[in-house]
Design a protein that fits this description.
CATH class: Alpha Beta
Number of strands: 9
Order of helices and strands: HEEHEEEEHEEE
CATH topology: Beta Polymerase, domain 2
Helix content: 10-25%
Structural class: alpha/beta
Number of domains: 1
Number of helices: 3
Radius of gyration: 23 Å
Largest sheet: 5 strands, mixed
Length: 197
Amino acid sequence: MNQKLERLCLLLKEILGRGIVGEPVVAFAEVTIEVAAKDYLALMGKLRNEPELSFEQLIDLSGIDYSEFNGYAGKRFAVVSHLTSIRHNWRLRVKVFADDDSFPIVASVTEVWNSANWYEREAFDLYGIHFDGHPDLRRILTDYGFVGHPFRKDFPVFGHVEMRYDPEQKRVIYQAVTIEPREVTPRIVREEDYGRG
């Protein structure tokens, strides 16, 4: 671990203290910390506002479903945020697990970084993770009548209806899936004189 990342780890432990679950982890030249759901919003505010840390930018936020992850037996849903400090030129990954697998909920960080708005809507839409305090939590990628959350590991891969826009009716309609069975083996050319004539 280089000195810069070592210094960041020490600062995180000093400023966030017991708010960090376990020890900071360094992988791929980036530090990752895990925080408890109850401390998430307060700690994210500290990460942004403490001058020694100064993580001004939320680069990304996404949901994760760990339900079928290599024999994993912990909490199912997590939210992972990627932060950048321009002032100090370092990055941080923050992971928080939702306490309840049947109704995953974590605090919204839109009041800390307004760029979290659409990221949280996407995680809600695709994983069903609810963000407490979000100003407008609604679907962003799927249709309003869509049932379920398509990035969950238990979401059915095959369905019985498809959705499409009908230009004659000028609205979205649902209809039975019409997929013809087909052979999916690749075409292989084995002719001796292929391309010679």
